[in-house]
Each structure stands twice: as C-alpha cells, then as structure tokens.
Amino acid sequence: MDGQKNQFLFKVSLLSISLMLTAAPAISALIPLMKESFTAQSLASVELIATVPNFGILIFVLISNLFIRQIGKKQTIMLGLILALVAGMMPVFTSSYLIVLISRFFFGAGIGLFNSLAVSLITEIYDGEEQASMMGLQSAMGSIGSTILTLLVGVLAKYGWHTSYLIYAAMLIPIVLFGLFVKLPSKKTTTTAVSVDTSGKETVNVATIGLMVFALFLYAFFMVLMLKMSTFLMETNLGQPENAASILSAVTIVGIVIGVVYGKIFKLLKKFVLPIGILGMGLGFFIIANASSLLLVVVGASIAGVCFSLAAPYLFILTGEVAPTNSVNLATSLLLVGINLGVFLSPTLVNGLGQLFSLSDAKGNLFICSIFLIGLGISTLVVTMLHKNKQIVQKEEENGYAK
C-alpha cells in the first residue's frame, strides 16, 4: 500500500469513484420531456424520478457496513459501481414509468454502497498535507462529474430523454480504473490520521436533531432549482431543456470554484457565512422567479449556486461543533439523513406548498422557495447575532472576574 499510494494512476483511480457521487440529479433537465411520455403521471411523480435515487443512497449508506464486513471494501465498491451502471442505463431501454422509477432507486442504492468509502479510504491511506490535498480533490470530483454529465444531458436531450440516460455509461470509467489499479489490503488499515476516542457511547442532542431538520428544508428548497429550471424556461418561453442543462452545469462549476477558495471566504465571514449564504439563495430564487430574460435566469441561478456553496459546507462544520462528545460520526450521519430526505421529499413538499398558496406552476414554486429561504436566512441571522452577543457578554464577564 505504501508503495502504490503515491503513484499517479493509483490516486486518479481512487478519486474516480467520486466522479459519480452526485450524478443522480444530472437528468433533472429531462423532466418536461419525460412528462410528455408519462401522461398518466402527475408532475410530482415525474419529478420523483430525479430525486428517488437519494432515497436509495440514504438506505444503502446506512447498511453499506454490512456489505463491507461480508465481502470487503473493494468488492463493495465494485458491486456498487456495477449496480449503478446497470440501473442507470435501464431507462434507455424502457418506457415504463414503474421500471424507470425502480431503476433510479437502485441507481442510488449502488452509489450508497460506496458513498462513504469514497471519503474514508482517503483518510485511511493518506495523512497530513497529502490527506488534505486528496480530500480537496475528492470534493471537487463530484462537482466535476455532475457538471460534465449535466452538459451531456443537454446535448443528448435533442435525441429524446431515453438517449440522455446513456450518460451513465460513464460508470465504466471508475469500474475499469478502480478495478484494475487499486489494490486494498485484506485487513483493516490501522494507521489513520485522526485518533478516534471510542470509549464513550454516541448520543444525540436537540441541536443535532435541529440541524438535521434544518438541512432537510434547506436542501429541499434548493433542489427546486434543479427540478424546476427546465419546466420554468419552457412555461415562460425563455428557453429549452438544453438551456436548463447549461445553466445547471454553470451552477455546479460555481460550486467547484467556491470550494477551492472556501477557506478564505470562511475566514472572512466566519459564522455569518450560513445566514449570508441562505439569504443569497433566496435572492437568487427571487430573481429567477421574476426574470423576463434568459440572462436574468442565469444571473439568479449563479447567485443561488454561489450562496448554496457558501452555506452547505458550513453545515458539516457546525455539526462538529454542536455534536455531543464522541458523537461527531453519528451527528454527521444524521445530517446526511436530513440532506437526502430533503432532496427526496423536495417535489412533494414544494408542490404541496404550491397548491396551498395557489402557486402550482414552476414560477410560483420558485417564488415560494425564495420567500421561505429569505425567512430562513433572516431567522438564522438573528440566531447567529444573538449567539455572538452572548459570547461577547460571557467573555466580558470572564475578563471582569479575572480582574
């Protein structure tokens, strides 16, 4: 392992499995085209095709350790990749809504099998600065893969939605690279960069549960940008599905750029990065909902993408701060549960709100999300300021006692 871990081909092969981690929403721009085929299904049911993989991811992330214990890490990853390849390609060959929906669930299941290993293998194999560098690249790979696949969907959409699912043939890349060039030890690596205290029992507190629910709503509202962009452009005659694919690709590219400089931004904004990010998301959605040109849609989507990339990473930082002692892993797992549930429930939640407020079209849905996000951002800003003031008072009292 020590000999191969520094080889370029080994690193590329190890990182290649992260290319497909966020591949599920890439077909979101196809929703209007699929709706034309699945005339007996409601819009929310068709949108479920884009989000049901996250339900599969959620379940199989939780049970992936069972597979790892039975067949090993590499075999679990290979099984996940092959399952995702077969299930991902299935819609190319069928026009049955039920089969498409089931295949999408198993596509997510395949990703769920190797999702956590894409990160944990890096922490096991590398340490120090090299580990940090690899983790940064791992984070970027998901956005890069999503960007490329979303662009390909825009190109292939001209030939029908069935053809666009050919993008998941890209699963062959990590299957070949990881299968041929990554050799993992048969025994669990004992040298890690971080020493974990396992003496205490993992517990859950109110803050952890609250953060999970917070993440659920944040991701549910943001996912509307992916789900409704294509429908919005067609309803308002501002563009076509291929335009939506290009815009959504730009959003993911923005995520890559923000990820590279996130440390510097966080150093400047500190805890205010979360409320600023959420308020910015609300502003971006508001601009899109009221856009009269494709350019304004691009501006709004870019603002929403930038601000989401500011807010989302801080949720994981905040999780480490609020989690009980020895419970960071459990708290992180719960946060991932909230995120995946939010993505999965996004169509149901937002369409329900649309019917409640008589704003059922894509424009109305985006407007509702903008209002809720702005309200969520204001609430978060108030809590952040109150917490900061409390810390200042406590510090002044401590200094007074010290005197």
Summary keywords:
403 residues, mainly alpha, Growth Hormone, Chain: A, MFS_dom, MFS, transmembrane, transport
Distance between the first and last residues' Cα? 56 Å
According to CATH, the fold-level topology of the largest domain is Growth Hormone, Chain: A
- The assigned structural class equals mainly alpha
For the residues shown, what is the average pLDDT? 83
Secondary structure: helix percent: over 70%
> Number of domains in the coordinates?
2
Return residue spans where pLDDT drops below 50 for at least 5 consecutive residues: 187-199
Q: What is the CATH domain class of the largest domain?
A: Mainly Alpha
Morphology: globular
Number of distinct beta strands = 0
What would CATH call the architecture of the largest domain?
A: Up-down Bundle
Q: Enumerate how many helices there are, as a single number.
A: 15
What is the CATH H-level superfamily of the largest domain? Answer: MFS general substrate transporter like domains
Rg, alpha carbons: 22 Å
Pfam family, one: MFS_1
InterPro entries: MFS, MFS_dom, MFS_Efflux_Transporters, MFS_trans_sf
Subcellular location: Cell membrane
Keywords: Cell membrane, Membrane, Transmembrane, Transmembrane helix, Transport
